[in-house]
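Working notes for the structural subgroup meeting. M.R. asked for a predicted model of this chain before we commit to crystallization trials. I am recording the input and output together here so anyone reviewing the notebook later can reproduce the run.

Input as submitted:
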Amino acid sequence: MSKTYDVIVIGSGHNGLTSACYLAKAGHKVLVLERRDTIGGAVCTETMFKSEEYPEGFRIDVGSSAHFMIHQTPVIKDLNLEKYGLEYIEMDPFMSFPVPGEEKVIHFHRSVDKTVESIAQVSESDARSYREFIEFWKRINKGVLKTFLVPPTTKNIVTEMAKGQMRDGSMFAKGDQVSGLQQIFASYEQVVNRYFSNSHVKTALIWMAAQSGPPPDQSATGPFVGWQAMLHESGGKRPKGGSGMLTQAMAAMLKDHGGEVRADSPVDKILISGKRAHGVRLQDGEEIQGRMIISNAHVQTTMLKMVGPENLPQETLRDVTNINVGNGFGMVIRCAVKELPRYTSAPDDPYIHNGLQMLCPNMAYMKSAIGDYQKGLPPEKPAVVAMTFSKIDPTLCPEGAHTVFLWAQWHPYEMQNGLQWDDIREQEAQKIYDVLVDYAPNMKGKLIDWYIQTPLDIERKHGLLKGNVMHVEMSFDQMFMFRPTPELSKYETPIEHLYLSSASCHPGGGVFAAAGHNAAHVVLKAMKKKKWF
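Returned structure, recorded in token form:
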């Protein structure tokens, strides 16, 4: 007879492992099941490109790389992850913008003062505006962040934001209430245009905000650029040894508290009797019993495949089917290279390789890429974020070599004109690498090898439908109590004892761990009501 667990977690992504760790810490018997042969989901690092010249290979992230939002949560401290080998390296500056055609670079340091000094070299008025911008959004973010760490009901959102105001001062300065609300409901491009006039400053901020997904002119996305203020609070960081060291530390913590992680164990079905989940069946037919089931898989995969339409109320089935997953997001190439980029705009700059390098010369360039995407075509000239983490973490590669990761947007999953990703993946990857060469001509001919991830590749490897790394679109109608649907927004489902914990849920994607944190506390509360626990 199979073993019965208190909790079975489907998927070993960082949100699933976060939930598992909190539950194991509370004394519950937890099993995590991962479909792939390696754990970590989209926060995973693999060794690649071993050769005679480089026998030890390169440490390559196969999903998220830069860690920002998780440092705004209590997760790392609560789970004592440093004890289990997690060591973060500061990225300072956390992002840089090489100014096209000039020997200048704008650095966004953790220090606001140093950032203002850097902006002043291209615009003194924008440097002054940056302080005002950061101060305005800093007030708002303290309240909003509290809402990200609780289940999203209308009452909780208002209450937590109010608590933030009482604790940290008013959300808006006196007389700014109407203006403040207008900025929250504006597009992030409108917010940037309100404060800044210099095209380089505007492009840098808008390109960073675009990493959340929606285009710059979409309404109610103002907070995506407003999060810039929080980056000065916690900075950006990288786990030493690769992004996947976060999930490795979580797995070690889980095991230390009696939990289990099984790789290469894909779940086929969630077992349901009388509208109550009681276990899972693996693809090989093995059945495992669990009193509570938490799915860290994509919401549509969970509800439409693992649960199945036959077990869902019609309204739930309709709403889940109609969730806006979008049409792809971006693609990435993970490169082993012979040297670091030497940017024409900053050939000898000592800081530029410490964080993200924003390679998008102007707004017209960005909007051209968006226009191609909207036509169902890959961008002729992609907007790119370069990441050269081997500069601050030499453990990633052999001596004398480096890693360069190049993330690009916007790349549609479904394309027009009969285009198929498996046919064009290398030519589109070359386009992305050529953008780097445009900025840093020394990189021509310096590629050792690369690992390409198109939207289709991302879907295949990580189960992220249509290659959307945020799971579902981060539009206002799919945020807070609307994410992924109003019925499922509290991490509960109409199937008793089945819960959700993935980035499909509030507050969304990125290396945040808030969804896993919140789901764990919802389940812990439910377990206290059950005598058999």
